[in-house]
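Budget justification aside, the reviewers requested a transparent look at the raw inputs and outputs of the sequence design task funded under Objective 1. We therefore reproduce one unedited record. The lines immediately below are the structure tokens for a 98-residue chain.
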């Protein structure tokens, strides 16, 4: 799973549910951004993605993404008991990793 934010070149009004000011790796906190999560299988084939507001931290969205992954795999009739999830430190929090 990989999560990232992408900032826009334009300043849009606040009516967008996804475009929000938030922290990003390019330190452009003055720009609106949207966050995207992409989950791929062991062959690097994507099977789920999610977009979420640019002001939501990855660690906050993480539990929702995990639920989405489990639901998608269950829909595909894939056993979820023995999966290995690889993610970066942006998802670390006491609540998530405990």
């Amino acid at each position: 799973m990989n999560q990232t934010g992408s900032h826009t070149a334009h300043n849009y009004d606040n009516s967008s549910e996804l475009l929000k000011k938030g922290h990003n790796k390019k330190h452009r906190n003055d720009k609106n951004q949207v966050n995207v999560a992409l989950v791929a299988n062991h062959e690097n084939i994507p099977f789920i993605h999610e977009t979420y507001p640019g002001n939501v931290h990855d660690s906050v969205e993480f539990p929702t993404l995990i639920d989405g992954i489990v639901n998608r795999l269950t829909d595909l009739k894939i056993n979820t008991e023995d999966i290995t999830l690889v993610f970066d430190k942006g998802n670390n929090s006491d609540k998530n990793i405990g």
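The longest strand covers residues 32-40. The CA atoms of residues 5 and 37 lie 9 Å apart. Computational costs for records of this kind are itemized in the attached budget.
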